[in-house]
Amino acid sequence: MSETLPERESMEFDVVIVGAGPAGLAAAIRLKQLDPDLGVVVLEKGAEVGAHILSGCVLDPSSLDILLPEWRSQETPIRQPVTEDRFYFYGPQGSLRLPNALMPKLMGNHGNFVVSLGLVAKWLAEQAEALGVEIYPGFAASELLFDDNDAVIGVATGDMGIERSGEPGPNHQRGMALMGKYVFLGEGVRGSLAKQAIHRYGLATGREPQKFGLGIKELWEIDPAKAQPGLIQHSFGWPLDLATGGGSFLYHLEGNQVYVGFVTHLNYKNPYLSPFEEFQRFKTHADIAELLKGGKRIAYGARAITEGGWQSVPNLAFPGGALIGCSAGFVNVPRIKGVHNAITSGMMAAEAAAEAIKAGRAQDRLSAYEDGWRTSPIGDDLKPVRNVKPLWSRFGTALGVALGGLDMWTNALFGLSLFGTMAHGKTDAESTEPASKHKRIDYPKPDGVLTFDKTSSVFLSNTNHEEDQPVHLRVKDMGLQKTSEHDVYAGLSQRYCPAAVYEWIEEGADAPRYQINAQNCVHCKTCDIKDPNGNITWTVPQGGEGPVYQTM
Hints:
alpha+beta; 8-stranded mixed sheet; 7-stranded mixed sheet; 15 helices
């Protein structure tokens, strides 16, 4: 920038929490329960709490029962209990329902609820504010602040009104510095500050690489005659081949609505594969097409999911703070659930911080949190399923799922695994193979009734970014993007992105030209994960921008 910026104004708190998701809000609530005099602030980059939250979601309420024991007697958005579980293997021409008796008990959903996690987050925010927690939506934490001992002492929010050139515009406003004895990073999957902390402090040393999936989801209003509130079903198989991991979820809510979603594991090899197009193809399966016939799509969204589990969770504590929720990677992959673990992690971090502050400590490592999670309900949940993902990746869908089921059964019955603890090996970026090893996939054109294009889908996510600002998707080496991402991997970013952000323009004097439509970004973080060279870094845009999910 051409001029020296003024100093940031600062505010002091006991604990600063980045991210108003289940983990961050649970941490805030627990801190106030333990000591009402603690100063606690939660920063949320979305325009409102819940705006950026996307999840299935079937909620396991076990951790909520501990955090807020009276919730069942209150008016909450947690209303639709699960009434039936179904599991399917899909082929192109039909489906095979798998008997529930074959599923380990941990896969059951009795006592769980179909919810909009965004609405649950809004309700949790109300509980937090009632206890005196300060919540600031529309404030994107863009920078970690450090002291001379390299401990985190706070975060800074991004400046507003920076123009595309990087210079302050006429409406420029300096970001705030929010200082705390401890900082919790609960940004969700692949959070930008969590990524920095993991790298700076070597938190992933000795751990397996984190693994990810891309979840794409639509909300449909269907024919009332077909609605079955509380029915949930999961499938694997078609349209993915048996070498590519992933599967679907379909959850019936109240009001003749249904969540239809598809998860593609991001360690897929073929750069011609498009997770978005695979999801659209999935809806043409006879079972799904019949359910949606006569219905209307009313919302769309996409988000990366952590899949590494037990062996990929980084060290949770660093000088001055901690990782909580999906920033740490607590999703149980076969159950497709992580909210209960996120809430538990927030409570555990809060308890460690409250004890430390009571003892007069600050800006040190919350070792009790790191030392305790593997013997907590989180560890109890993740350890028995630790080999499901690596077995699926190594042996493919048919054999891998069968072996994963066997491993879950031996863990459930005998408390042991025939496989020990398996390694994940490659990162998802390293798993991508050159286009020369694969054939192009010819996806059908959308019909605008059952299947859709990316642009109309992004419109339903209510995504908005001010165009006259620096692009928040940073390409480190544009030359490498051409020689590798384009020439070797056939420009896979325009296929892995579910929001039409990336394009290779193949016509004109300067072709091929890489175009980044940052205003389309739904903050799924897939580019930060899947680029084969790690050449794209996702950073926060101006506060409040991005998708505005209503009931997702």
